[in-house]
């Protein structure tokens, strides 16, 4: 036996483990190593195992199922909500006095059998093509709508007809998760307790179609003046189209939206064909069924009240403050920004200058319409609006419609863009009020690479020769502004106009040189906002029509008005300086009747279908438009011969309305001067030596324009051709008072690139020494650029004329019409 200590059994069975030894799986024969267990390291540790995922999913499913069961048990079908018998909305002036009440809701329920089958199918094609075969709820659509609500992306469709009926009849229009949840459970229960026919009947009787019409029967009467039984397929498809956007697709109220409404109408009919509810042959015979005029307008919306209510509703729904169906449900107390005294003053001014002058025996007077809007530049509040003669007689709001060209009232936006961006002429000269352009009629616009092709006509085809931008603005010279738009860049001009206040989607706001002549069809209210931005030194905040809203004593949150500097003060104030000259010495002299320092611009649409005056004082920006429209067909008509005048120009009736309204609106406040900050080159003047000698090549005695661009009158006995300007043909005029007449303008020899000493009377591009005999036709000096001018009713017989837009030739540079 060994002397060394013997190990006991337990000592043999256990000993400390060598950490470096391989691990053996317990129970494995021969101590063979088992599969190694690798610890989770790095980013893998952050991922759940499949066991965790499966367990979590199982718990989620169980909780969801439990929630559905509990929700189904707890949520019951409620009685009809108060909105199902909607209330009226009350509209107030800014001082709290009542402006209007929008009347009782128009409802009339019908049985489903009374609704033609094709009308029922048109509604299904528009809203829920799987109605009869699919479940009551659309979880995917609900999830999408809920996500959009949570992320602030606005509301979106996706609900079935059953869900929409539940919302209309049992719940409300508010977009909340709670309401969507209730809608889900009620729709499921209703689908179990009512037939599809009963649900469809309820939907057709509770849906809002616009024109204050709830239900398909009321809609049939409101749009087509017939009972629902008498609707044809095309009419039914149009009513079905309205469910998507009732007011937006009303082509009578918004003729500019007809393209969108027609697209929706085609979508409905094409859907019916796709579902085999309408034969392709019948589809091909369909013609768009234009609805009739608005019917059943209540006495409470007569005069201007209806236009104001319409504009306020569009403002609230368009800015997503209240959706259209919720607003239509009623019960709101809406305080507007409108000043009662200013509103009455606008109506009185139109009556004085237009309404009282209409003659039933004068055919052209039947076509006359007026629109106007006035904004406080500092607050953005709309203080007055004129929509038409009477909402119950003429239903389209002339202040908000977007289908008449704005004409030369657009030109200030071109100049503002030039100053804002430091633009130069093609000769490298900075564009300022005293920059000289060729103002000859149909002067060819030159592109950056020398390409030509666009040659707009001036008013009355007048040749102006070399002329300063200020004088060209005074007399609205198309040739100058088309070239300026090309020099600035049409795209830059467009961006500036949008920044100032024109909507991005303004029709015909196309980035071509012709943009300067105003083919765009912005509304009167749009233009008032843009001019208010100029009046506010380039600062813009969205205009507003509403000061306060309450419902059942609770305030409705209004969006905060953010004011931003959209163009520099230098650009805005320099433009104001130019527009002051238009009122002092140009086509807008009738606006002097306001008795205030004023800036403004006249404008005339193509074929004289509309005449505009847009202007402002430091306190008020106001735009007035006189439009021509057939009272039966609503087709645009020329204003030739209206109000007993040969032509209705912007410097005539519109400027007179503007002056009378502005004087009355500001009667109780002191007159304020414009606080303008201008560059030195914006107020450049000739020295005394220059006044004696004139510019190089100009005969002695010629003078540079004064601060507002008006040339000095010729001395007594001075012969024609020596004058610097044209006589405005005022009764007390002692000579020429600004603009070209028999002789050339003072700027004629300062054209970019012209050698010193070049002879007077030569326009750009003509051989040296060639004379054109003066700017005005027939050598005339009175009343406008041509002999005799055109009367504007503001400055006596002959008047100043409104040297505005005429159609220009279409060219390779642009496809848009000149104006």
From TrEMBL:
Domain of life: Bacteria
Protein name per its UniProtKB record: Penicillin-binding protein
């Amino acid at each position: 036996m060994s002397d060394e200590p013997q190990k006991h059994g337990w000592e043999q069975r256990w000993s400390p483990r060598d950490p470096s030894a391989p691990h053996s799986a317990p129970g494995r024969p021969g101590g063979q190593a088992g599969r190694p267990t690798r610890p989770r390291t790095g980013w893998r540790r952050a991922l759940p195992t499949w066991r965790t995922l499966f367990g979590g999913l199982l718990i989620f499913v169980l909780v969801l199922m439990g929630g559905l069961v509990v929700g189904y048990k707890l949520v019951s079908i409620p009685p009809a909500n108060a909105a199902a018998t909607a209330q009226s909305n009350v509209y107030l002036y800014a001082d709290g006095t009542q402006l209007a009440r929008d009347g009782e809701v128009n409802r009339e329920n019908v049985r489903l059998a009374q609704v033609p089958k094709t009308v029922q199918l048109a509604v299904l094609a528009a809203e829920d093509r799987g109605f009869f075969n699919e479940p009551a709820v659309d979880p995917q659509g609900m999830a999408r709508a809920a996500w959009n609500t949570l992320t602030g992306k606005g509301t979106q469709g996706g609900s079935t007809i059953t869900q929409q009926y539940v919302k209309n009849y049992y719940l409300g229009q508010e977009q909340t998760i709670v309401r969507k949840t209730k809608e889900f459970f009620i729709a499921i229960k209703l689908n179990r307790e009512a037939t599809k026919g009963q649900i469809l009947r309820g939907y057709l009787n509770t849906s809002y179609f616009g024109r204050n019409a709830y239900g398909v029967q009321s809609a049939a009467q409101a749009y087509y003046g017939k009972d629902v039984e008498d609707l044809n397929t095309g009419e039914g498809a149009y009513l079905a189209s309205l469910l998507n956007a009732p007011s937006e697709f009303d082509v009578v109220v918004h003729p500019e939206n007809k393209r969108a409404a027609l697209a929706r109408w085609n979508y409905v009919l094409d859907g019916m064909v796709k579902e085999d509810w309408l034969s392709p042959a019948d589809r091909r015979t369909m013609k768009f069924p234009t609805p009739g005029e608005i019917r059943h307008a209540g006495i409470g919306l007569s005069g201007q009240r209806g236009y104001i209510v319409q504009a306020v509703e569009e403002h609230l729904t368009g800015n997503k403050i209240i959706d259209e169906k919720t607003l239509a449900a009623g019960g709101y107390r809406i305080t507007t920004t409108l000043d009662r005294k200013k509103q009455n003053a606008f109506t009185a001014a139109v009556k004085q200058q237009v309404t009282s002058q209409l003659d039933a025996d004068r055919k052209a007077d039947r076509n006359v319409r007026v629109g106007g809007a006035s904004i406080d530049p500092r607050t953005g509040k709309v203080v007055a609006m004129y929509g038409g003669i009477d909402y119950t007689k003429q239903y389209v709001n002339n202040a908000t419609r977007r289908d008449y060209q704005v004409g030369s009232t657009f030109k200030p936006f071109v100049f503002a863009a030039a100053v804002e961006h430091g633009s130069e002429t093609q000769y490298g000269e900075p564009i300022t009020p005293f920059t000289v352009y060729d103002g000859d009629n149909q002067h060819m616009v030159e592109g950056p690479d020398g390409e030509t092709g666009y040659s707009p006509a001036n008013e009355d085809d007048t040749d102006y020769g070399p002329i300063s931008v200020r004088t060209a603005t005074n007399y609205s010279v198309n040739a100058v502004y088309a070239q300026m738009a090309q020099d600035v860049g049409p795209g830059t001009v467009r961006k500036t106009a949008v920044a100032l206040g024109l909507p991005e989607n303004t029709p015909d706001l196309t980035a071509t040189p012709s943009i300067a002549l105003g083919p765009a069809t912005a509304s009167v209210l749009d233009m008032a906002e843009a001019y208010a931005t100029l009046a506010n030194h380039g600062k813009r905040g969205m205009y507003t029509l509403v000061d306060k809203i309450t419902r059942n004593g609770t305030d409705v949150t209004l969006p905060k008005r953010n004011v931003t500097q959209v163009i520099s003060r230098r650009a805005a104030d320099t433009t104001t300086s130019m527009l002051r000259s238009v009122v002092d010495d140009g086509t807008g002299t009738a606006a002097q009747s306001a008795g205030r320092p004023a800036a403004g611009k006249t404008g005339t649409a193509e074929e004289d279908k509309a005449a505009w005056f847009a202007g402002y004082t430091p306190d008020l920006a106001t735009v007035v438009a006189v439009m021509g429209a057939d009272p039966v067909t609503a087709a645009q008509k020329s204003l030739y011969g209206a109000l007993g005048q040969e032509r209705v120009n912007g410097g005539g009736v519109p400027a007179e309305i503007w002056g009378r309204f502005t004087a009355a609106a500001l009667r109780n406040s002191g007159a304020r001067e414009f606080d303008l900050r201008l560059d030195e080159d914006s107020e450049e003047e000739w020295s005394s030596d220059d006044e004696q000698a004139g510019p190089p090549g100009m005969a002695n005695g010629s003078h540079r324009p004064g601060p507002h661009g008006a040339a000095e009158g010729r001395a007594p006995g001075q012969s024609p051709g020596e004058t610097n300007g044209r006589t405005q043909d005022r009764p007390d005029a002692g000579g020429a008072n600004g603009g070209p007449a028999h002789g050339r303008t003072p700027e004629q020899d300062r054209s970019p690139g012209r050698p010193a000493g070049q002879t007077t009377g030569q326009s750009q591009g003509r051989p040296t020494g060639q004379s054109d005999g003066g700017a005005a036709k027939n050598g005339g000096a009175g009343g406008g650029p041509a002999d005799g001018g055109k009367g504007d009713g503001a400055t006596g017989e002959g008047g100043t004329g409104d040297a505005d837009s005429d159609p220009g030739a279409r060219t390779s540079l642009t496809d848009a019409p000149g104006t």
